[in-house]
Description:
The protein has 381 residues and is α+β, with helices and mostly antiparallel strands. It is 53% helix and 19% strand. It has a 5-stranded mixed beta sheet with strand order 6-8-9-11-10, with helices on one face. The longest helix is centred in the middle third of the chain and has 74 residues, at 123-196. The mean pLDDT is 85. Bound molecules: adenosine-5'-triphosphate and magnesium ion. Adenosine-5'-triphosphate is lined by residues 222, 287-288, 291, 313, 315-318, 326, 331-333, 338, 343-349, 370.
Amino acid sequence: xxxxxxxxxxxxxxxxxxxxxxxxxxxxxxxxxxxxxxxxxxxxxxxxxxxxxxxxxxxxxxxxxxxxxxxxxxxxxxxxxxxxxxxxxxxxxxxxxxxxxxxxxxxxxxxxxxxxxxxxxxxxxxxxxxxxxxxxxxxxxxxxxxxxxxxxxxxxxxxxxxxxxxxxxxxxxxxxxxxxxxxxxxxxxxxxxxxxxxxxxxxxxxxxxxxxxxxxxxxxxxxxxxxxxxxxxxxxxxxxxxxxxxxxxxxxxxxxxxxxxxxxxxxxxxxxxxxxxxxxxxxxxxxxxxxxxxxxxxxxxxxxxxxxxxxxxxxxxxxxxxxxxxxxxxxxxxxxxxxxxxxxxxxxxxxxxxxxxxxxxxxxxxxxxxxxxxxxxxxxx
Length: 381
Ligand SMILES: Nc1ncnc2c1ncn2[C@@H]1O[C@H](COP(=O)(O)OP(=O)(O)OP(=O)(O)O)[C@@H](O)[C@H]1O
Ligand SMILES: [Mg+2]
């Protein structure tokens, strides 16, 4: 896993570096362009305001002050020859003689039979760009360091999550193998006995095999249900929670004593999927039966924003320190607590996933027995 973390981190650092270099480059090009355009605009403006037929130092000074640009020189040459100046060759940049840094920006145009040539220093803009470049490099470096630190933390969390998932997968594999192995071994022995006792009454043996097949079927159904990931997109319609509670009452009241506490004056309409909700609530009731409850109380309540369904039993309860984990896949409170009650640790994960698809919250508390409190949003749009 450390290797994966390093690899991810190096790749992340490289990508962030390339992104920063790209933006830094784009920023500098844009800056340089904007300074050039600025200077070029000004030169062109000064040239356009010069009237070559009435040119004097005084008018030039006025134009210079007005436009806040002080050209190095202005040359006005009378000519009858028409010179071709297109947009591109209006401007030229050249180094001043023997000066490495100082550059000259020249603008040339023709007006009323005169050629106007006007030039200014180019180096001041370069200096400004230098300063901005240094500041932006410093900022980029700080951003890079921060991105690396945040990225490292982020990658660390992801890798830890992957590690947990791997661990769960390993547990899952061993759980599945274990759960499948026992019934398969029983079936194998039963079949071998059946084959040995050619004509004897095989009913008992086949019944035992059927029991194991049913068990394997039940686990397979649960696993398949959990691996189906279309729960998020399940179609929710207007349904009455009270109807679901009554149907569950009918289904389970011969197995456990169920008391309903529902205010008949209220309506408990939510947006939901009836089949899925029956599976979820059925799982909770089946757990109560499985974990030795003799009685279940079911409460339905309505507030302004929520419809609250509570299922409270008087079974063996769950130790408080184990409560945060019971909705995790494959989690079971240890065997000594469950007293060899069979299970796979998948029921409550199914409940959690179904309720999530309904935007409902589930809370659990355990004093004497267990109490699950489910809050559905009380809105239908
Ligand atoms: N009503 C309850 N009373 C006591 N313990 C409970 C109750 N409901 C859940 N638990 C505890 O929470 C654990 C997780 O429950 P969950 O329904 O996910 O799995 P399971 O019942 O062990 O197996 P499965 O439902 O997959 O057959 C159980 O192992 C059990 O220890
Ligand atoms: Mg269960």
